[in-house]
């Protein structure tokens, strides 16, 4: 039923503009205040001592030596830590991760916090923490996927089904003309936002103010309230700027809570910042996987069966299983598909959502297996993908709400020059004699919707406010959301006061699952539409207004005016409408949530196709990605500049996944041996090729009122597989283990 909300979603002039980040100047000039930049009066510095073993007990800490160090104010251990109102090991839901808050002498993983030293200076706290010289009762660490017989977890990821299937895979494989079974392994990875987790905590009686980077302000606020027995209204969490998150800041973790406990213990504000090394343990990671895929095709190359099973690891004390098989439920058509997961428990910190959790690891395996199957059928990898294109979601059978993947393949292939690909591996060389390979990978990420609230106001001077506790991890969310807000109110962006990044604003949900712009944007749209509906009622019901009788569905707003849909020349300014009504302002609240009926009826995903060119030194195995072209269809594009930049970032992560990133765990100590940005490799500029991202047009009437799908995570999917397939095409060597390092080509 068309109404002003429906109309307004189509009449904006700000959505679609390639604006630069609104906070860009603040950031590049250093004026933006990140959590650790806050220095309240009387601030003390806290430094964590962390475990050097992965399993056992702490038997001794030299608290006296640390306390005796000049400048040290207090040493917080299990003996004197403030009592908590909630057990840090309690778990009421899958999103409530167990925390290490000095509740016992048990060590569950390396780099687990075991004490906190609080001092007048950072140096004194650091030296004090060194003086604790912990002693341990050590038990052997259990590391790797072969430590025990795998178990089937109750749920994977954020509570997804462990298994899902359709049809009879064994029968499909048995009747297949050709079949393959292949095993892919992906490495453990650790989120490494440039800004480590940090907290500045201030207590004022039973009121608490916490500055900390967060992808979910309200969740952090509620967890703090529960842990400290506070009324949530008395807990304020502020996150104006984040230096990246990638999922690791979606939840409050132990070190942040320890900073709050330290402030309570000493009765002064405390700052606690993780050292880079301390990021490798208590704040989540992407667990390693071993994925077994079995595929069969008929004589024409059509899949008869696809089976995708993932073995992964979680911690000894909590549950998060990388849902790497899940995307095989969504991507390729086959009469029989089965997906499942199993897991083992190891002595690491609990794994977590990490940018494209499940899809990133799963995609590199699935796209590799699809490439292998295409070759077994003697088909071009792109033709094989088109042959097995899913017109409906493979397992659920639901139609897609929209799917422009065919256009992604076509536009990407044309731009890349896929038709110049020689069929045989190891048959292309560049002018310097290096081996050249082309590879393709399909990208997919679910188009999720979560819950959010927002508040909006229009004032008589023609300015407006939109407020919600939304999060900008650096990707430009506050710019995109402000564009939605300005269009929603029908005002120019420079007339908009956009407030965000605090837990005392309406709850904007979580910046995760690539769903923040869609979800928070929908809440904004709902609030701004409610404001306009009030204005429309004031105007269209008043004989003195040129809009009289037009009705709610007969007007829309632009440039601070309500206009008639049937005659845009006739309208009235917000100021005039409010003045005649004797009102200073109108305001309203709005909410967004997934629509159960449309979510039931349709499968909703963003899609893409990534094409990679690599060059490989035939003697030394050195691999260079020389070109990447990604074509993505993700519904309505709010800001093409920012979206392009998200795709670049995702594809660069794909380079990282394919060629660089791995956490090396010492099986004896259980410690990450490369817990620093020097040895934990991520691509640097010299590793990043010419990248292109094509924004493929797609209109989706079902995902949400604005037609927005997420763009934050899809770029990683497809890319790593495309690169691995290109390495095979260049060399004729199929490396089924990422990162693909040069020793694996020799
Ligand atoms: Mo993302 S891994 O949902 O922050």
From TrEMBL:
TM annotation in the entry: none
Pfam families: Ald_Xan_dh_C, MoCoBD_1, MoCoBD_2
Record domain Aldehyde oxidase/xanthine dehydrogenase a/b hammerhead: where: 29-140
Superkingdom of the source species: Bacteria
InterPro entries hit by this protein: Ald_Oxase/Xan_DH_a/b (IPR000674), Ald_Oxase/Xan_DH_a/b_sf (IPR036856), Ald_Oxase/xanthine_DH-like (IPR016208), AldOxase/xan_DH_MoCoBD1 (IPR008274), AldOxase/xan_DH_MoCoBD2 (IPR046867), AldOxase/xan_DH_Mopterin-bd_sf (IPR037165)
Cross-referenced SMART domains: Ald_Xan_dh_C
Matching PANTHER family: DEHYDROGENASE, XANTHINE DEHYDROGENASE
Name listed for the protein in its UniProt record: Xanthine dehydrogenase family protein molybdopterin-binding subunit
Protein source organism: Methylorubrum zatmanii
């Amino acid at each position: 039923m068309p109404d002003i909300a429906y109309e307004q979603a189509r009449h904006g002039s700000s959505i679609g503009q390639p604006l630069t980040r609104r906070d860009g100047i603040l950031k590049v000039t250093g004026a933006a205040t990140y959590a650790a930049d806050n220095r309240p009066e009387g601030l003390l510095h806290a430094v964590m001592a962390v475990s050097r073993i992965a399993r056992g007990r702490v038997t001794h800490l030299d608290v006296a030596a640390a306390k005796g160090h000049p400048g040290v104010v207090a040493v917080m251990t299990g003996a004197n830590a403030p009592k908590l109102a909630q057990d840090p090991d309690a778990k009421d839901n899958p999103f409530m991760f167990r925390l290490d808050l000095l509740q016992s002498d048990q060590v569950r993983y390396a780099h687990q916090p075991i004490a906190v030293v609080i001092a007048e200076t950072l140096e004194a706290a650091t030296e004090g923490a060194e003086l604790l010289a912990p002693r341990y009762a050590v038990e052997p660490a259990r590391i790797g996927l072969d430590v025990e017989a795998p178990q089937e977890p109750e749920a994977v990821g954020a509570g997804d089904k462990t298994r899902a299937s359709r049809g009879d895979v064994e029968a499909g494989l048995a009747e297949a003309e050709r079949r393959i079974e292949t095993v892919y392994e992906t490495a453990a990875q650790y989120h490494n936002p440039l800004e480590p987790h940090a907290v500045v905590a201030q207590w004022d009686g039973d009121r608490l103010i916490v500055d900390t980077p967060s992808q979910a302000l309200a969740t952090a606020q509620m967890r703090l309230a529960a842990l400290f027995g506070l009324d949530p209204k008395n807990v304020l969490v502020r996150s104006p700027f984040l230096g990246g998150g990638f999922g690791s800041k979606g939840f409050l973790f132990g070190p942040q809570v320890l900073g709050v406990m330290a402030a309570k213990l000493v009765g002064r504000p405390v700052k606690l910042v993780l050292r880079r090394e301390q990021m490798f343990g208590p704040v989540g990671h992407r667990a390693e996987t071993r994925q077994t895929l079995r595929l069969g095709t008929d004589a024409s190359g059509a899949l008869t069966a696809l089976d995708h099973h993932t073995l992964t690891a979680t911690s000894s004390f909590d549950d998060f299983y990388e849902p790497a098989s899940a995307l095989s439920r969504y991507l390729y058509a086959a009469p029989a598909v089965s997906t499942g997961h199993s897991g083992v428990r190891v002595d690491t910190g609990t794994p977590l959502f990490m940018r494209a959790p499940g899809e990133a690891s799963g995609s590199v395996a699935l796209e590799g297996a699809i490439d292998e199957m295409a070759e077994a059928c003697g088909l071009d990898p792109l033709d094989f993908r088109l042959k097995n294109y899913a017109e409906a979601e493979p397992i659920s059978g639901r139609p897609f709400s929209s799917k422009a993947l065919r256009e992604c393949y076509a536009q990407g292939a044309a731009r890349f020059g896929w038709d110049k690909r020689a069929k045989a591996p190891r048959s292309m060389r560049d002018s310097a004699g290096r081996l050249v390979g082309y590879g393709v990978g399909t990208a997919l990420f679910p188009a999720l919707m979560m819950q959010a609230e927002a508040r909006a106001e229009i004032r008589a001077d023609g300015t407006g406010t939109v407020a919600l506790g939304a999060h900008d991890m650096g990707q430009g969310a506050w710019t995109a959301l402000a564009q939605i807000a300005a269009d929603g109110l029908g005002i120019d962006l420079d007339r908009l006061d956009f407030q965000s990044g605090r837990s005392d604003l309406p709850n904007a949900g979580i910046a995760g699952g690539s769903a923040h712009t869609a979800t928070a944007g929908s809440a904004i749209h709902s609030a701004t539409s409610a404001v306009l509906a009030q204005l429309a009622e004031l105007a269209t019901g008043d004989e003195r207004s040129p809009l009289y009788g037009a009705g709610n569905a007969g007007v829309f707003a632009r440039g601070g005016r309500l206009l008639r849909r049937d005659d845009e020349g006739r309208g009235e300014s917000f100021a005039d409408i409010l003045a005649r009504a004797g009102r200073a302002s109108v305001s309203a609240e709005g909410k967004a949530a997934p629509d159960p009926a449309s979510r039931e009826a349709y499968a909703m995903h963003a899609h893409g196709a990534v094409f990679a060119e690599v060059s490989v030194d035939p003697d030394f195995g050195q691999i260079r990605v020389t070109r990447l072209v990604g074509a993505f269809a993700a519904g309505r594009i709010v800001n093409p500049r920012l979206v392009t930049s998200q795709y670049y970032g995702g594809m660069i992560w794909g380079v990282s996944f394919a060629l660089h990133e791995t956490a090396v765990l010492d099986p004896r100590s259980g410690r990450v041996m490369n817990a620093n940005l020097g040895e934990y490799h991520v691509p640097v500029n010299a590793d990043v090729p010419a990248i292109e991202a094509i924004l493929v047009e797609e209109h989706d009437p079902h995902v949400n009122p604005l037609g927005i799908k997420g763009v934050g995570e899809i770029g990683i999917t497809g890319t790593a597989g495309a690169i691995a397939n290109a390495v095979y095409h260049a060399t004729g060597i199929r490396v089924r283990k990422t990162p693909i390092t040069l020793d694996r080509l020799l």
